[in-house]
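Re: the pair you flagged

First of the two:
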Amino acid sequence: MDAPAHAPTQRNGTSSGRPTLEELSKRALAASGLGLPAITGGARSKDIAAIRRHIIRAAHGFGYSLTQIANFLDVSKSAACRALAKSAEVNKVNEVNA
């Protein structure tokens, strides 16, 4: 029996065409040489926090809720919200300095 149209697929993102959270994370981690376990949980190194912010911003842009993102990254919803806000602040500063 076929899966309903709204069910996420396992290999190529979701049925809506957006990438899965795992795919977004792997793309963000590709250049760093780190694996998924490095970004889950509350690690606070600047590099990991920056990658996590990038993932949160990208995932939120693709329509994932902060709860979904926080659960995937194994952080609190408030931590995901703060990271999203900080990501927006960093982008504003970069735009002003450009």
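Second of the two:
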Amino acid sequence: MKLPRTASAFSWTGLALATTHAAIFVYLYVDYRRHAGAWFADLPLSLFSWPFVAAMNFVTGSSFDFAGDMTARVAAAGATDTAALYLVGWGLGRGARALSSALALKFRASSPGS
């Protein structure tokens, strides 16, 4: 009995997106720490974390407080957004593979030599 081939959970596209996001997030947090105490020092970090904040607003049903000095929330935002971008990259990679396979089958079937 032959087992069906399972899809891989690894994605180079997801890894590239997640790594880039994590690097930018760390840079913005370090930038916040250098400018802590200044007006709007955490604005770039807060804007970059909008997917996490929007999700938490939806889950809690009210306004979710987020600032650069809330270390646990900043870490959760970085991890959540990075994981979400990995999944987006994985989905894009799977979609691109499915599309290329479908196009290859279509063009192979319609080629004159078949």
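The chain has one domain: 13-109.

-B.
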